[in-house]
Each structure stands twice: as structure tokens, then as C-alpha cells.
Amino acid sequence: MGGLDELLRRHRVVICAGSGGVGKTTTAASLALRGALAGRRTIVLTIDPAKRLANALGMTEVGSTVSAVKVDGLQTGMLSAMMLDQKGAWDQLVERHAPSAEIRARILNNHFYQHLSQNFAGSYEYMAIEQLCELHASGAYDLIVVDTPPTRHALDFLEAPQRIADFLDRGVVKWFVRPYFSAGWATLRFMNRTIGFLFRRLEEATGVSALVEVSDFFTSMSALFEAFEPRVRRVYELLRSRETCFVLVATPEEQVLSEAEYFCRKVRELKMSLRAVVFNRVHREMSAGRQGVAADAVTRLLVRLLGDEATAAKLAESFNRYEMLGRGDGLRMEAFRRLLPKGVGVIEVPNFNSDVHSLVDLRAMHPFLFAA
Amino acid sequence: MKPTLERLFQRRLLFVAGKGGVGKTTVACALAMIAAQLGKRTLLTEVDGAGRAAYLLGVEPAPLGLPQRAAPSLSVMSIEGTAALAEYLQIILPVKRVLQAVFASRIYRYFVAAAPGLKELLTVGKIWYETERVDETSGRRLWDLVVVDAPATGHSLQYLRMPYAAHQAFGAGLVARESEHLIDLLGDPRTTAISLVTTPEEMPVNETVEMYQQIRDNLHMPLGVLFVNRMHRAAFDGKKLEMLERKLVKLHDARDRAVATEVLNRGREEVGWTDINQRYVQRLAAAIDMPRVEIPLVFAEEFGLREVHAIAADIVAESATPSRRGMVHGRA
Q1: A57, A282, B5, B222: which could join B189 in a potential S-S bond, CB 3.0 to 4.6 Å?
Q2: Would the CB atoms of B176 and A351 count as touching at under 8 Å?
Q3: Which of B240, B263, B302 sits opposite A319 (nearest CB)?
Q4: How many domains does the structure of chain A reveal?
């Protein structure tokens, strides 16, 4: 046992964060599989898995239902998977909390709500955390592995609850809920001549009667927002608790790493615990740390072996190109490593020769994730 | 000039769209570079980006909304919706001090958040403005070509859809009029083309096929070229590798054996990904009726201006093949 095994043993909630396209979903699924194999009741909460991986995990339908994953060789442990429905997440929240069918319909038809639920930066992220809290509170799992939504900035995940809390700030909401607001801009102009005037011009110019909708939205949902602040507090308590840790998933690409760097800093600022960094799709330079492998020496060796100069040259060229990739990856990862605080494990998973889509593939990641 | 690119460059406005992480910005930069080298006065605009386009073209990013010269005939600019809205408001409401108060106020934030797609609409509006912009001294258009590095898939669809949505939602007023212009511009195949970038792998291909269907069936916008980026192309096949595998066990020197084993592993990686890439190219060819340009993977330690030059050269070379529409490379 080594590598991330210790991390899985010590935490109940493991959150895989990182920018899109770095193998977050696969890494989360692979960690969850290991947890289950180690005998724990495990669930992986995922967002947008590739179809074949979803099939491998037995997730056939979107919509937040839990499916049991059949795993060979599982003894006391258990593996479940759940796919968060991004589009339906807010609707579910409304359904759950709206006091009556009439108010529910009113909210769902509100333009501002429709726009907010689809576009508000961080709303999916927030819903993922809501779901996490619910799974955590249910007590049905020893280990919850969370795959965070594919955002451009991994940070969105951490800031979403606060951003939503700010947006739904009770002071502002109350203000919008006041009846005169629904009457439109005339009254606001009365309150503050200049600003009111400008906004009225703005509404005229754009043709958007936005604030009436906003007001209506907040009025309909006021009951829901009363409970929001304490909820966001609880969310942050869970994210900061000793049971929870973050695993940053990245690739050794420049753009990904500069975002990852920012993420690491922010996690510390928010007093959350980053325990490991997993690099996927890593190329390793063979000559790293040793004497370089001279290009013509490789060609000579291959000619000697194959007796075919043309093929030898092609193979040697391909090898040298990968050495170059490996050199770049190595340098970038080394620079990144130096920025990490002590105690953060760094794991390298090589670029595989094929896509990772089955339980067998997920297991193939284990020797790298859990190497001693 | 190669036929595929020639047809593409007859347009004045080129969107480059695709999933995040597939090399969209790189391809957009390379296209802008090729056009500029052909003598077209070209503007590359990056939407909601972090100045990556400027970096790839070898210049420091300029403030939002300001074109910055990167090479002869080539400028680069960053656009962001909220800044574009502020710029727009300064035009229609020219009282600076009061505007500052508006921008700082909380209600303004709610207004921006609440007005469906106002931000997106103004972003597209700003692109339109640059596309039509006239140089006051010469009376000519300022740019022959505007290349847009669009945001990642979901978001770019949101942007492209916006003028239509706005036109439907707002019966009258400035937005309705402006959105009509935008619809004309975006829907005209003589002016505009939307090119797609993908890598030949599962998730990006799924998203690209979806996006293609959306653009074709729902948005009815003119499509440009499908760029398949990061193609592995092994120059050898599995048989050669099998031979290498059989022979290397006989090597006595441990170091030689280690090197040969590594060559074998890298060779397998290359052949493996070549196969996967080919499979996905076939899927793309079956699902997407667009001229296709494949761009080989660029092996480099770091990615910068030199690599963008290399990709530009690859795009020009690959476009030499007559349109690959409906034909799979290496099979026909």
C-alpha cells in the first residue's frame, strides 16, 4: 500500500479538481474503485463522463439516481456511481423547496430564473456541492469521491457557494422583494434620480424589462433564500473539515499548469486541504537525470538490431520526438513541484496507448496512483 | 493558394470554435497568421480569454477591447462581455462620472446578470463593429479579415445563438435593430464561416459532432473547415515493432536493452494513438459534412510562436489535398 492509499483511508470526502480535459472523471472513478476494493462503501459523484465510462460504471440515465457498479473481486466494499444532471440541478432545488405547485410553476417560468439556472457562473458547481452534502449527511458511505464540473477555471468550484451567497445576499434580496420594485423603474428613479434615469434609459435601449423579472423571482423564492446563508456555511464547514481533502488533477501542459498554480494558492487561502496532485498523460524523458541518449547512437543501435536503415531512422526519430515531449513535461512538472507546500504528494500517470474507458482500464491506473 | 483555405479566406469573419483544450487558440492564431502573410489586414480577437492569443503571437496582452499589433498586417485583441457593455454604455450615455457610479452599483450587476444574454450580445456586437469598422482617412474597411477565437463549445453556442434569441425576445428597441444586423452578418455565407477544431479523441469528437448539428440544424449558420488537431501519424507499423521486440531480448548490454525497450514503448504509443486517431477521424467524416484539414501533432518542449508558425505551415500544406469531404484519409 502506498501513494494515495493513505489518503483514501484517512478521508471520507475526496474532491478531484482541475481544469477541463485533464482526466478528472477517470481519476475520480479510479480512486473510487480502489476505495471499494479496499472494503469501503464508496460512491463516485460524477458530472459528465464519456459514454463508455458511464456504461462501465452502470450509469445509463442522467438524473441524480444512484447506480450500483458491478465489480469483480469485491468483498466487503461496495461501489456506487451517481451522475449529476447539470441542467436539472436548479429545477430540483426549486421542486424540493417551493412551498406550493403554483409558486413552483411561477419560478420555473420566470425568465430571470431560466437565465440564472443556465448561465450563472458557479451554479452547477454549487449544485454538485449540495449533492455532496446530502450524500455525506445520509451516512450511507464511508468514502465519497467527487468529480468536479468541467469548468475553465478549477477555482470556480471553490468559490461557487460564496458567489451564490453573495448574489442571494439577504439585504439585496429583501430590497428586491419590496413591492414597489415590481412597479418598475419609475419608483427607483424617484429614489435616486440619476441612477434611476440611467437604468431606465438602459432598459429602453435594450428592450429588457429585467428588474421586474428579478423582483418577481426573488419574491417567489424568498422562502428558499431565508435558509441559504446557514446552508452555505455548512457547505464550507464540510469543505474545510478534516474528513475532506482535495486532489488536484492536471496534465503537464503550460496552460493547465498555470491554472493549477493559481488553484493551489487559492485552496490554501480558503483553508482547505490539498493533499495530492495527479499528473495525467505524462511523458517521461528516458535520459532524465542520466547522460543523454545521443540521437545517432539510438539509430545505430536500431540499425544493428533490425538491419533496416529506413525503419531504424523512423523509429529513432519518433523516439527522439517523445524524448523532447518528456523533457518539456519534466521541466514543467519540476517547476510546479517546487511551488507545492510540503506534504502534498505528487503522482505521475503516464500517457496510455489507448483511451481509458472500462473498469479494467481504471484498474490499470492503480499501479501508478498507488505505487509505494 | 490552396482551394480549401482560399474559400475560407474569401469570408471576412471567421469563428473558430471547439471544446476547451483542443488547441482552438493555436489554430485561430495560425489562421490569422496565414491570412496576414497573404497580405490581408487581419484582426484576431480572443473572447473571454486570458491573453493566451497574444502570448502565442509573441506580444504582451493589451487592455480589453484594444487592438494590438503583433506582426505586419496582424493585430490581436481581447474581448470580454462586461467590458464591451461598459464601452457600449459610454457611447450611449456619455456622462463619465455618473457611469462610474452605475458600474459600481449592485443593481448594475443584477441588471447584467438578469438581462438574458446582454453580455453575449454585446460581445458579438463588438465583433461585428470591428468587422464593419471603416478607416476614417482611407474610407476603406479597417480589417480584411476578423478571426474570432471563440469560447469553449457550450459558451460559443450561447454567443452565436444570442442575436436570434435577442431578436425574438425584444420586440422593438435598439437591441432588436442591432440583432437584425448581426443575424444578417452571421447568417451570410459570403461574409461569415464557423470553423470547428477538435482532437481525434472520444470526448472532443462527441462534442464537436453535437456542435456541428446545432449549428447546422438550429442556428443555420455557414460552416467553414473542420480542423482535426494533434494527429498522431506513425511512420512505421506494428510489424516493425514486433520485430524490434523479438530482437531486443538478445541484446547483452543492459543499457542498450533499456534504450531499445524505451524505443519500443514509444513506438507502441505512437502506433496506438495513430489507430485511435484514425478511428475518430472516420467517425468525424461520417458525421460531419465539412472540408477537413488534419494537423499533425507538433512535438515540442514548449509551445510558443515557433510552434504556431509550424502549425500554420502544416495547415497550408494539408489544405493542398483536395477537399477531404466525405473521404477518409489513408483509406480511399
Answers
A1: B222
A2: no
A3: B263
A4: 1
